[in-house]
Design brief:
mainly beta, single chain, 15-stranded mixed β-sheet, 7% helix
Length: 791
């Protein structure tokens, strides 16, 4: 019999009995293992604090507990003991042990090891588990939390395994069966990450969808949230974050179905989201009710740019907004909301859209003259045109012929919107505008009067054109680009200001680029800029503007200042009557067009700077730079009181004010001229004798220069036969001809006697020959001195 002494002591009986610190020793010495067994656990206490005699506190019987066996197949009683007293030894080699350690169990928990009804081989590397080297934990033969397991899981034919049960969150699976069916609907929402670009959905053998997340930044998680709606992922059409497709809001885009409600719903949605892009795939969208943007950050963008208007038709694919509502509407308004507490509208834009007013097309009518009794003309029929102001001819010297009728129609039509041509007995009227309620016209000849009752004007198609395409009101820092405008009755593109805001109302700092207009059928302005007496359209950048118009104004510039135009071309069709542009005068300075700058501008027809004949304060201080004389742009019409400064492509300046000018024949002389300027208007340095030449274009040419040899200033006729004509000359020195003096300062003293060669006056009635000779001699001497006579 042997006794194991404890590892340490406790200070109370209860603590010693519990042995919470596990001081008790239950080890059987190696010499007795296999034959020895434990008998009892004895707990003693010292009778005195300093030691000495012991007294028995508790005797715990350990017989039958350690080690234990069950004979005859009977079950063993439950035995509880500290984990450090339990070990399993190999029967042949007691140095081989399995120790038990329960320290990893959460306090208060009981964990159970259940034996499967099968043999288990725990040999590392040959069993079904990872070796220590293969695992991620140094002491783990069986994989634990955070470890890995490799190899196949072999199942019986009727058994299944839920891979998610192999880990806490089911995220440690490294693959998924090809073409696997998802039938576990109760758990299908569980996390199941899939490697990047792994096939997700397949159809047949050659169609599949993959997800590629390679563009996402490292350590960033992006969430794809499914809305309560269908999503179309077609390239260029689908809805993406920040870009909202009008098709998803119900737009059709067939050019006839009214898409106003759907597109406005998309705009409202983007406004509520705090901004974004309303995307319109390339198509034509019918608009019966005007669209409105009145919140910041909203961009209307088409799928294809406007692309321009070909003279031969065949327009490229565009995104168009086509008016189908009542006459006089506005297709799109981008505007701040008027109100004392509101702000101007910012960070908005309209891009790649063609605005179509849906104006009726051009129409030709034929007037046939049939002679009646007394030379009258009856039965004239004009179909599908509108004659805006009527034609009244009162020339009694003309007979009724097709030529005269056509001439009178054209001559007496104010602001013509149609034209008459004759061929034989037929007059053809070409109308620019078609619509309801056509007016009659009266032609008076020497033999008869054709009154309206003699003319049958059949009604044409109703004119329901839109008045305005894009109306921009009190916006700042917005962009309007790649737009087209077709035939509006008021203005294709208008910029102005709202009535009231809590801040400046000006339409400022916007960029307007790549805009094209074609206003051949309607008389509205292509581009109109305006404002009121306090706020206006100012400090905007306009670039690459192309106007085509007929009777309307190309560029109508009202209350504005400090706008810059780069590359502006205004083309008026043949026989059109509209002004290329107007710079408006106003009742006060704030209502005028002033200090606007046009760089590289060309036009056909008049460009008018209004003056005091039109309003109290004239337009002023506008500038044209590089007026296109290569294509014969006329000089602008500058009315009384107006100021418009321009420079053309031939290098000519009009009304520019210049600072002193330094001119040289080369770099050296130019620098010398510059350095010499102090207060001169101009200084010219030239190394030759040709400083300046004056040419009148009729063969006359004069040169002004300094003779390099003598230093004389020379006025030289180079070509032609003209002479120097001087109305008044005042000099303090003599005049020379070919180096010889011909005249100098006046010779005085002719009223005083000078000896025999007297200069005194004499009475002509009593003069003697001698006295006369003296006077003549004195005069000859004076001419000789002055150089008028030579020796």
């Amino acid at each position: 019999m042997f006794v194991n002494l404890p590892g340490d002591f406790y200070n109370s009986d209860a603590a010693a009995i519990t042995d919470g610190s596990k001081f008790g020793t239950y080890t059987i010495p190696a010499a007795y293992r296999g034959s020895g067994f434990l008998i009892a656990k004895l707990v003693y206490r010292y009778l005195a604090a300093g030691g000495g005699q012991l007294t028995l506190v508790e005797n715990i019987d350990l017989t039958g507990f350690f080690p234990s066996h069950v004979a005859g197949g009977a079950g063993a009683a439950l035995t509880i003991f500290p984990d450090n007293v339990f070990a399993i030894q190999n029967v042949a080699d007691p140095t081989k042990e399995i120790d038990v350690d329960a320290s990893g169990i959460t306090a208060g928990n009981t964990r159970t090891i259940t034996m499967a009804d099968a043999d288990i081989d725990l040999t590392p590397g040959t069993g079904s588990f990872a070796t220590e080297a293969e695992g991620t934990l140094a002491a783990a033969a069986l994989s634990r939390g955070g470890g890995q397991m490799t190899g196949n899981i072999t199942m019986l034919s009727t058994q299944t395994v839920d891979g998610r049960d192999l880990s806490v969150d089911g995220s440690k699976l490294d693959g998924i069966e090809t073409n696997a069916d998802v039938t576990d609907t109760a758990n299908v929402a569980a996390a199941l990450p899939v490697p990047d670009s792994t096939s997700l959905v397949t159809f047949g053998t050659n169609k599949e969808m993959r997800i590629d997340v390679g563009a996402i930044s490292n350590s960033t998680v992006r969430v794809l949230t499914m809305p309560d709606d269908n999503i179309d992922l077609t390239l260029g059409i689908g809805s993406f974050p920040g870009k909202f497709n009008v098709i998803s809001f119900g737009a059709v885009g067939d050019g006839s179905t009214d898409d106003s409600t759907a597109i406005q719903a998309a705009i409202d949605f983007v406004e509520a989201a705090g901004g974004g892009t309303v995307f319109l795939p390339a198509s034509t969208y019918a608009i019966a009710t005007g669209l409105v943007v009145n919140s910041r950050g909203v961009i209307i963008e088409g799928g294809a740019p406007a692309g321009g208007f070909h003279d031969l038709g065949g327009e490229p694919a565009t995104t168009g907004l086509k008016w189908t509502g009542s006459a006089g509407g506005t297709i799109l308004q981008v505007t701040a909301v008027s109100g004392g507490g509101n702000q101007s509208l910012r960070a908005c834009g309209v891009k790649k859209i063609k605005f179509d007013a849906n104006a009726p097309t051009h129409s030709n009518g034929t007037v046939t003259l049939d002679s009646g009794g007394g030379g009258s003309v009856d039965g004239i029929t004009v179909n599908s045109i509108q004659i805006m102001s009527g034609a009244e001819a009162f020339d009694t010297s003309l007979t009724v012929t097709a030529t005269n009728v056509a001439t009178n129609i054209n001559a007496f039509t104010s602001s013509p919107n149609y034209y008459a041509n004759s061929s034989g007995a037929v007059v053809t009227i070409s109308a620019a505008i078609r619509g309801t309620g056509p007016n009659g016209f009266v032609v008076v000849s020497s033999t008869t009067t054709i009154v309206t009752t003699d003319v049958n004007l059949a009604s044409g198609v109703a004119d329901t054109s839109a008045a305005i395409g894009l109306d921009v009101v009190s916006t700042s820092y917005c962009e309007y680009s790649d737009l087209g405008f077709l035939d509006f009755t008021d203005a294709g593109f208008e910029m102005s200001v709202v009535a009231t805001l809590g801040e400046a109302r000006d339409c400022q700092h916007n960029q307007i680029r790549n805009i094209q207009w074609e206003h051949f059928r309607e008389a509205g302005a292509c581009l109109r800029l305006g404002g009121d007496s306090i706020a206006n359209t100012s400090f905007n950048w306009f670039e690459n503007l192309s106007f085509k118009h007929f009777n309307g104004i190309g560029l109508d510039v009202g209350p504005t200042d400090n706008n810059t135009f780069q590359l502006t071309r205004i083309f008026r069709a043949a026989r059109g009557a509209g002004e290329a542009g107007i710079l408006r005068a106003g009742s006060v300075n704030a209502l005028t067009a002033r200090h606007n700058y046009f760089f590289s501008i060309g036009y056909v027809g008049p460009f008018v700077a209004e003056g005091t004949p039109e309003a109290t304060v004239a337009s002023h201080d506008n500038i044209f730079w590089q007026l296109d004389k290569d294509n014969n742009a006329p000089n602008p019409t500058i009315n009384t009181g107006a100021s418009l400064y321009y420079h053309d492509t031939r290098g000519l300046f009009n009304k520019f004010a210049f600072t002193p000018i330094a001119i040289g024949s080369n770099a050296t002389t130019a620098l010398a001229a510059r350095d010499a300027i102090i207060s001169e208007t101009a200084r010219i340095y030239n190394g030759s004798s040709n400083h300046t030449r004056l040419v009148n274009g009729a063969g006359e040419e004069w040169g002004i220069n300094i003779d390099n040899g003598t230093g004389d200033l020379r006025l030289l006729r180079i070509a032609g036969s003209g002479k120097v004509a001087v109305s008044s000359i005042n000099t303090t020195d003599a005049y020379f001809v070919d180096g010889t003096q011909v005249i100098r300062n006046r010779d005085t003293g002719w009223t005083s006697p000078t000896g025999t060669q007297t200069r005194t006056g004499f009475a002509t009635s009593t003069v003697t020959l001698e006295v006369l000779a003296q006077h003549v001699h004195a005069l000859i001497d004076a001419f000789l001195v002055h150089g008028a006579l030579g020796a």
